[in-house]
Amino acid sequence: MAGGSSRDLPLHSSFNVSQANGPRYVTIQAPSMAQPGTTAAVTTTFTNGGDVGLQNARLSLQTPSGWTAVATSPTTLAPLGVGQSKQVTWQVAIPANAGSKSFTLAGQAAYTDEQGLGSSQNSAVVSIPFASFGKAYNNVGIGDNSSPSSANLDGSGYSYSAQALAAVGLTPGAVIQHGGCAFTWPNAPAGALDNVVASGQVIDLAGSGGTLGFLGTGAFGAQGGAGVITYTDGSTQPYTITLADWYANSPVPGDDLIATISAWNAPPGGLGSHPVSVYYTGVALEAGKTVQAIALPDDGNLHIFAVATSGGAPSVR
Fold first, then answer.
1. How far apart (Å, rounded) are the C-alpha atoms in residues 228 and 233?
2. CB–CB of 198/297 below 8 Å?
3. Domains of the chain
4. Which residues lie closer than 8 Å to 167 by C-beta, 6 or more apart?
5. Residue 156: what pLDDT?
6. Which of 113, 133, 151, 310 is in Cβ range 3.0-4.6 Å of 180 for a Cys bridge?
């Protein structure tokens, strides 16, 4: 009735209060790199960040085909209270024929709560490095003038002329000194794999000194990106490089022009004769450390012909 107090209103409705569930998550600790034929130690951890306890919690680890994971601690966890974490350790065997690429380990936790069955998952990436820079070659960038179609640096049929490179001293196996580094030009015949198109490859590279150097070029503009240096003490160092466009014949900041050749090899009906160049860029290394491996940037138009450290022997295929 008008003017009445709220205490006179009938309160006959009912409602339910459900407990909220906070985050429940899996973390994985695994080496970023491993060698074929070895065993890696991996740890999976499940954390109950919710506000109710869990029953029947268990952890599993899925590995790539041919890999095996053996738990060295119980995978079935005791009831997991609010805020608790439990770990499972694994010995992961990597087959001797594992290819040089990145592999994914997938950890999963399954459990029961007041709403029924639930799960959480996460993953980690383990990279198998290429044994040498030459093993990572995946592009033919140098062709003979008599067979220009045998090479295709940029994907459009253009390539460096082997004869024009030889005229400026860039012959197969030649040692190029620059920036304190001794580089070995690809020791490959014209028409063979001779450079790496960067796509994040991890490559073993033993060396030390003040500089990590690269010889190469960009196609379709200056190219580059971020990579990672791994040292023998397990520490890592991010780096960024850029290499100028081979067609531009002019370095970008941070680069040096190594050589300009008189003309490239062009496909039939192409742009015709044009000079193109090779460049150098370098990255400062952390003092007193030894390089174990490098991860290249991920740029499909970045071509690297050689790498070296200022304290190491010439890089070889």
1. 14
2. yes
3. 24-127 (2.60.40.10), 134-309 (no CATH)
4. 261, 262
5. 97
6. 310
The position carrying tokens 């209103």 is: 9
Q: Which amino acid is at 36?
A: P
88 — phi, psi (to 5°)?
Answer: -130, 130
- The residues that bridge with 112 in the sheet, in sequence order, are 55, 117
Percent of the chain scored above 70 by pLDDT?
91
Q: What ranges in the chain are assigned the alpha helix state H?
A: 162-167
pTM, entire model: 0.85
User: Could you report the per-residue pLDDT of 275-298, keeping only the tens digit for each?
Assistant: 999 999 999 999 999 999 999 999
Buried b (16+ CB within 10 A) or exposed e, 88-118: bebebbbeeebebebbebbbbbbbebeeeee
The whole-number average pLDDT for the span 212-224 is 98
Residue 9 scores a pLDDT above 90: no
Closest-CA residue to 187 (of 142, 246, 243): 142
Residue 34 phi/psi, 5-degree rounding, is: -155, 160
- Sign, CA dihedral 254-258-261-266, equals negative
How many angstroms separate the CA atoms of 215 and 103, rounded?
28
Mean per-residue pLDDT, 117-139 = 96
pLDDT at 313: 58
Pairing verdict, β 142-143 and 159-161 = parallel
Here the tokens at position 12 are 């006959």
The counts of H helices and E strands in the chain are 1, 21
